[in-house]
Amino acid sequence: MNKEIFGPTTLLIRSNDHDELLRIASSLEGQLTASVHGTEEDLQEYANLIAILETKVGRLIFNGFSTGVEVCPSMVHGGPYPATSDGRSTAVGTRAIERFARLVCYQNFPDSALPEELKEGNPLAIMRMVDGKIV
User: 31 with 95, same domain?
Assistant: First the structure.
C-alpha cells in the first residue's frame, strides 16, 4: 500500500466524542499541515488536541485551508517524519537555508586564517551576529 501522496488531499475526521478524537490524533503520522475548524471557545476546549497536533505537523491552520507557500520568515513547510525526512528545518521560507548549512567553529584561529565571512573586519560587509548582537 502506497502511504505517500503528492498534491492536495484531505483526511476528514469525525469522532463520537472528545476522547476518541484525541486517540485518532495521537495515532496520526507526521504531516505538513493540519486544519482545525471551530470557534475560539473550541480552541480552549480542545487545547489538548492542538497540543497533539503540534507534535504531528509543521503548520497548524485555524478556520482555513492549506495554501501555497511563500518565501518569508514566518513560513514553515515541513513536519515530523514522514512528512519530511528532517523535521529540524523547513523546506521553504528564509529558515530553509538551515537544511543546507552545517555549523563549524573556528576556535583560537588567527584572523588571517579565518574564512572571509568570519574575519574581524568583515570584508564581505555581511550582516552577522557578534557577541549576541546583530551587526
Answer: yes
CA proximity to 88, closest of 104, 69, 103: 103
Which run of H or of E encompasses 40? Answer: helix 40-45
Per-residue pLDDT of the chain (135 residues; tens, 9 = 90+): 456 666 667 778 888 899 999 999 999 888 878 889 999 999 999 999 999 999 988 889 999 987 766 667 777 666 666 666 666 767 676 777 777 777 888 889 999 999 998 999 999 999 988 888 888
Contact present, 35 and 43 (Cβ < 8 Å):
no
Q: Which domain holds residue 110?
A: 106-135
Q: What is the pTM of this model?
A: 0.57
Residue 77 in grid coordinates:
513547510
With beta carbons less than 8 A apart as the criterion, state whether 13 and 22 touch.
no
Task: State whether 87 and 63 are in the same domain.
Answer: yes
Same domain for 20 and 55?
yes
User: Do 30 and 88 belong to one domain?
Assistant: yes
